[in-house]
Amino acid sequence: MKNIQITQWLTEFMKQQVRPGDLCIDATMGNGNDTLTLSSLCMETGQVLAFDIQEQALSRTRQLLEEKSPFRNYRLILDSHEHLELYAQPETVSCIVFNFGYLPGSDHRLSTQTESSLTALGAALRLLKREGLLCLCLYSGKDTGFEEREAILRWLKGLDPRQYLVICCEYYNRANHPPLPVLVIKL
């Protein structure tokens, strides 16, 4: 078996979830890799809404998609993930992806924040359709993320098990606070 990075691992679940024609959200677009994956999976009949608060993220994502996406089924939105509900209707989204932390290769002082992230997660649950999937990647370590990670884990623990299945995994033998992958399925 090959060495699987967290983003590759979560992509495998996205591939199982997303179908042509689906509406998907990349709540923290960053460099656009998840946006590209979702765009490819939902194909020309689907749509991807991708969010970030940094113009640099939109620029990088736009360039990636123009070079590699065969579809123009995406909308890049310069707005916080806490405003997801302004752009989609309740119970219409198949898959929502979050990468909590900071934009790789950018200023670490600009990162997701606990309060807005918890607001965004609540909105995401309302937007997910039945059997919809949240893919979360919780980055922490060195200079950011511990408070946010712990708050999100507490929030996830409190979700009603009759409405949501929460699967939290970890790279158990890796040092230096490896990212934590989490799946949430709306039952």
How would you characterize the overall build of this protein?
The chain is of the alpha/beta class and 187 residues long. Helices cover 33% and strands 25% of the residues. It contains five helices and seven strands, in the order αβαβαββαβαββ. The protein has helices spanning 6-17, 33-42, 55-68, 114-127, 146-157; strands at 23-26, 47-52, 74-78, 93-100, 128-138, 164-168, 180-186. A seven-stranded mixed β-sheet has the order 3-2-1-4-5-7-6, sandwiched between helices. β1, α2 and β2 (47-52) form a beta-alpha-beta unit. α1 (6-17) packs parallel to α2 and α4 (114-127) runs parallel beside α5. The chain starts with 5 loop residues before the first helix and ends with a strand. The model has no long low-confidence stretch (mean pLDDT 90).
Total helical elements: 5
Bulk shape:
globular
Radius of gyration: 15 Å
For the sheet with most strands, the description reads: 7 strands, mixed
Secondary-structure element order, N to C:
HEHEHEEHEHEE
Measured distance between first and last alpha carbons: 31 Å
Helix content: 25-40%
Mean pLDDT: 90
Proportion of beta-strand residues: 15-25%
Looking at how many chains there are and whether they match, the oligomeric state comes to single chain
Question: Going across the major beta sheet, what is the strand order?
Answer: 3-2-1-4-5-7-6
Unreliable stretches, pLDDT < 50, 5 or more residues?
A: none
Label the structural class.
Answer: alpha/beta
Tell me the total number of β-strands: 7
Strand-helix topology:
Layout: H1 6-17, E1 23-26, H2 33-42, E2 47-52, H3 55-68, E3 74-78, E4 93-100, H4 114-127, E5 128-138, H5 146-157, E6 164-168, E7 180-186
Parallel strand pairs: 1-2, 1-4, 2-3, 4-5
Antiparallel strand pairs: 5-7, 6-7
